[in-house]
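Incident log, structure service

09:12 report received: a user says their structure output differs between two submissions of the same chain.
09:20 pulled the input from the user's history:
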Amino acid sequence: MSDSNVFALGAQGLKLDTEADIGKHTAPLKENTSITTINLTGNTLGAPACAALAPLLSAQKNLQTAQLADIFTSRLLSEIPPALDSLLTALLPLEKLETVDLSDNAFGLNTVAPLESFLSQHVPLRHLILNNNGLGPEAGIKVANALSALADRKAEARKQGREVPDLETVVCGRNRLETGSMAAWTRAYQAHRKGIRVVKMVQNGIRPQGIATLLSLEGLGGCESLETVDLQDNTFTSLGVQALAAVLPKWKGLRELGLGDLLLGARGMGVVVDALGQGKNQELRVLRVQYNEIDSRAVGKLVQIVQKGALEGLRRAELNGNKFSEDDEGVEKLREILEERKEEKGEDGEWGIDELSDLEEESDEDEDEEEEEEVKEERELKAEKVLKDADQEEAANVSQKKDADVDELAERIGKTEMV
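09:34 re-ran on a clean worker, output below:
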């Protein structure tokens, strides 16, 4: 791809309010209708500017990638929907557009409608990147439901004889999706289960019950083509760990697993290692388990399965922020193994162990504290179950209206201003 086929205003900090403002930069789009990549990232576009840009975008029939991250900084909430609608309506008919990045834009309930419409209809979509959009659980449900609808559109197009790509990548991190939207996301992933390969949902405030729902066989657990799963900075504890352990052996093509800052604990890490020790994840290259209160025993257990050949593809382990010393015997052995593999392969990329600059020293009290924490966690899980059962009983008479009720709730909350 030559530079002549890239239209880029990236990171110039331009404030483009009007048709005249955007018109100063659009000559390349008028002169060349073979653009494959458009990059507007790091500028701020008003509704009139987007309306003027729209027909120029829709003329780019070869467009493959739209990088639209951080394009509404300083805009009022009322400005974003019409601006976004102009851009996405123009992009909708482009049959080669497979990658869309809309990160770092505010898409709460008041602004998500144009995105929802686009995602439910854009059949060529292969890679979706939505990072740091402030969705919240209600808007998150709308996005997930749109992706479920997209699966139906893709299936219809295939029946008509069209070549349609699978939805392979979903990046939706730092969006406050929370446990409340996980049922909708589970349905979305199930709808795309044959093709989905990369899922990154970091820092979304998802608690153990939501993690268990997401990882169930009706969700990511049924997506056997997964190559990257990154759920860092949510909350697993034992419930999430058990759910993960149950599905790990099904992800035979998994290459990267992100489990950092999930409250795994030493015992939780042991459960994960046992699952990996079954030898079903030989393609796994990168394991990220930083800041999980993992101790030297859990590291030693990881080393044992690596030595036994359970993770022949492992190249990198990220262990910083846990409870062992930098010169721990297990860490040194793992470092040695990974360095030997790098020499044998002679390939670049991510190798070895990360910088261990923020370790905690393991104390004699850690084991007792962990046992106390497990007892506390069991009590919390029992309490959650009681509340869940009560909620189900209360909702029993309206269970058949679930989707309609969710829609009504979203419409009602949509009248409030997004945080």
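09:41 both user submissions now match this output. Likely a transient worker issue. Closing.
09:42 reviewer note: The chain has 14 helices and 14 strands. The chain has a mean pLDDT of 89.
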